[in-house]
Design a protein that fits this description.
- The chain is of the alpha+beta class and 233 residues long.
- It is built from 4 helices and 11 strands; from the N terminus they run ββαββααβαββββββ.
- Strands 1, 2, 3, 4, 5, 8 and 11 form a 7-stranded mixed β-sheet that branches.
């Protein structure tokens, strides 16, 4: 079953992993970020979301911003030690670990994202697909979510709207037609290069990043299936 959401926000940053220090965003939302929006509304161990298409609804605009970050997090080893001992110091003093970093972010973004809801075989006969389908539709229509969806970074929160029948109803906002916009590449699709597809958690201790060659064509980015030859790790 394919579902559609419109998401928007004032700012977004879908960080390119090859940028080690500074935060530099991809031009558009990544499949993993789109998947996270659906999972923020409904996630269960028995289901899996597969993003199929991302439509760009607003022109791609950029902004530079310097912001404060911390250089690290609380060590998991210290947490385990505190759990074994029944107590310990797990405080993190921000003033001692503060760093200022520059970022190249997106501003005033809006996307229409399409994803398939798959029910895993281990769900069992007591959990038919219609159970999760109705659960998602009910939550999405009411604007309910487990946690607030975000656009790449948690501080860049996203608003979302459920689109009931995207294939049969004309959209309120069509995707950008790049063929008619000289500022976005007149007459040809825009090649975005290799984009992060998702992380493969086959080995939880060492997740493997997956990439695919992305392009914006007629205002949309088509997302290949996980088993496609276009997805490389």
């Amino acid at each position: 079953m394919t579902y559609c959401l419109e998401v928007s926000g004032d700012f977004a940053c879908f960080t390119r992993p090859e940028m080690k220090v500074e935060r530099v965003s991809y031009d558009v939302m990544t499949p993993s970020a789109a998947r996270a929006v659906f999972e923020a509304i409904l996630w269960k161990p028995a289901i899996r979301w597969h993003v199929r298409r991302i439509e760009v609804l607003k022109p791609i605009r950029w902004m530079n911003l310097r912001r404060n970050e911390v250089s690290g997090g609380i060590s998991s080893r210290n947490v385990e030690t505190a759990m074994r001992n029944g107590g310990g110091s797990l405080a993190q003093f921000i003033e001692d670990e503060r760093q200022q970093r520059a970022g190249l972010f997106l501003r005033d973004v809006a996307y229409r994202i399409h994803a398939d809801l798959e029910v895993k075989p281990e769900a069992g006969p007591g959990n038919p697909p219609v159970k999760y389908q109705e659960m998602f539709e009910r939550r999405a229509r009411k604007g309910q979510c487990v946690n607030q969806p975000y656009l790449g970074c948690r501080e860049f929160s996203a608003q979302f709207r459920f689109i009931a029948a995207p294939e049969s109803e004309p959209p309120d906002r069509p995707p950008l037609d790049e063929r008619s916009r000289a500022d976005l590449g007149l007459g040809r699709p825009r090649d975005l290069g290799y984009m992060l597809y998702d992380l493969d958690f086959a080995d939880p201790a060492d997740p493997r990043p997956l990439f695919f060659r992305a392009e914006i064509k007629d205002g949309s980015v088509e997302i290949p299936g996980l088993d496609s030859e276009e997805v490389r790790g």
